[in-house]
Amino acid sequence: MNKFTHRKAVVSGLMIFVFVIYILQLFNLQVLDGSYKLLAINNSQRIETQFPARGLIYDRHNKLLVYNQAAYDLMVIPRQIKAFDTTELTSILGITPEFLKRNLDKCKKYSRYKASVLVSQITDSKYARLQEKLYKYSGFFIQTRTLRKYNVAHSADVFGYVGEVSQSQIDKDSTYTAGDYIGINGLEKSYENILRGKKGEKILLVDNHNRVMGSYKNGEHDIPAVVGGNLTTTLDIELQEYAYQLMQNKKGGIIAIEPATGEILLKVSSPGYDPQLLVGLERGENYRTLQQNPHLPLFDRTVTATYPPGSIFKTIQGLIGLQEKVITPATMYECHYGNSFNGQFMKCHGHDSPLDLKGGIQNSCNPYFVNVFRKVLENNKYSNVREAYGKWRDYVLEFGLGQCICPDFMNESSGSIPTQEYYDKVLRTQNWFYTYIMSLSIGQGELLITPLQMANIVTCIANRGYYITPHIVRPTDEKHKEQIQRHNLSISKAHFDIIADAMEEAVKKGTARIAACDSISVCGKTGTIQNPSGLDHSAFFAFAPKENPRIAILVYVENGKWGASYGAPIAGLLIEKYLKGKISPRKKGLEKRMLESNLITPQPPEKQQPQESEI
């Protein structure tokens, strides 16, 4: 065999070998493995995301508060769209042609080859009509998912709501894709990682009309969704419901805490809104309506709003005065409808004079606590008022003020306890006098505190010197358990006993008599907060019973006029409801007045009489 013939044989052999390989591979693809034949058929498969049901939310007694209902998204693959009847489709869905075009453009911009949500959260009735006609709409298909359903028509500030994920959120977390839902605020946001679960995938075989013909390989390659984890809140939902009834037509907030555990029993921001409004196709329009409401129902008045605390802050002043040993329980000060302090007059209401510490709290005497504050700031053990103020501020911060204290809400404000540097700048000197800031003595001036923080103050008093981290969700894991800690104050327990006694007297025969409950020892303190733009605000905090307290509560009612007008009676009713399970017959008239009173609808102007007036 010559050289040329040899080369020819080698080349021929290689060609035959390659040809045989191709034949065998084609036989394998087309005969042995039919799956590749199916892949070759245009539009034969559809990968459908399996959305997990979000976790359920319960109250402290395992009553179901938030669950899920079936809903449907209309999906579209833009490259598969053929001419369709827009009039029919918009009529079925109850949307405008402009809405349809705008969303179609968004889907095309996202991807012409990937499925994306065209219309989300379609209800059962609309889905039934659409399903009958869907075969006429090439490139369109239905994807099943779940939506939130609520067993209560309130507490939206607690639950929050779920909405479509934004691009910035997708950029931060690649497990989300366009059209996914995410917790926007409230517990839905704080516990998103627990509630959301894990998405799955299902591969479907479809015909040329996008009708499902079955699962690909009997679901062998499907990935099942993992249902979200449940949350058990610390709320007493019956008490919560009653509190919302009492706060109807009023602005403000209520927080109640179980002192021994830090568990939040109720959290009411009023006016609120029905959380179901932000579910379904109408959620966008409903949200705009809520945004435009002048009473700001979307604003959380319990953890985001900050207010001057008013006279309830006098309890802290008394505690600091005792701890600093600048007063004793027997220390007396005079008051004659107010007193003058270096030329500045501090007004007060009529009461016996002079008063000791217990009488000062019982009658909420303004000059008494100006004097206490003065003694603290002019204490000889400090070099000047500025240094003494720094120590005073340290005591105040121990009560959880000036900081976020609840791990369950991402919208919590820290409030403001002004620093020394702040006053240096405002007063343009470091050589202060107590009169420059004496409004702080009665909870006014630059103090700004959330209702949650105010409730935490009374929790500290109820516990005689400590608080447990306030929380509204029972711990879900060890990391969460570690967040809930005991916080001890440096003020002596004996001083808290004195303040608790004084608060008991305030309810028995002082400014808070209207909060008294039969057979329950209630310890409380009223507050009337000066409001330059309208009627003064009404505040009241209390705990009960006096020994082994089971509830500590703060009620703050905007434009409620006096602490005893709305704050105290509402708190008294809630305490009685929680501890006794019902309202006594003698308080039914008071209950009716609180339920029917309206502080939101404009009322004829009414002249305020001085009672606990504070400057």
Total individual domains: 2
Task: Quickly name the level 1 CATH class of the largest domain.
Answer: Alpha Beta
The proportion of residues in beta strands is 15-25%
The total beta strand count reads 19
Which overall shape is indicated by the principal axes computed on the Cα atoms? Answer: elongated
- Please identify the structural class as seen in this structure: alpha+beta
Cα distance spanning the termini: 119 Å
Helix fraction bin:
25-40%
The number of helical runs is 21
Task: Specify the CATH homologous superfamily of the largest domain.
Answer: DD-peptidase/beta-lactamase superfamily
What can be said about the biggest beta sheet? 5 strands, mixed
| Rg computed from alpha carbons, rounded to a whole number of angstroms | 33 Å
Structure, described:
With 615 residues, the protein is α+β, with helices and mostly antiparallel strands. 36% of the residues lie in helices and 18% in strands. The chain has helices at 3-32, 35-40, 86-93, 97-110, 124-133, 156-159, 167-172, 186-190, 192-195, 237-246, 283-292, 314-323, 357-362, 366-377, 385-398, 420-427, 451-462, 478-483, 493-509, 563-580, 588-596; strands at residues 45-50, 57-58, 64-76, 116-122, 140-150, 162-164, 181-183, 200-206, 212-215, 231-232, 252-258, 263-270, 338-341, 344-347, 466-468, 486-488, 523-529, 537-544, 551-557. Strands 2, 3, 4, 5 and 10 form a five-stranded mixed beta sheet that branches. Strands 12-11-19-18-17 form a five-stranded antiparallel beta sheet, with helices on both faces. The chain has a three-stranded antiparallel beta sheet with strand order 1-8-9, with no helix packed on it. 41% of the residues are buried.
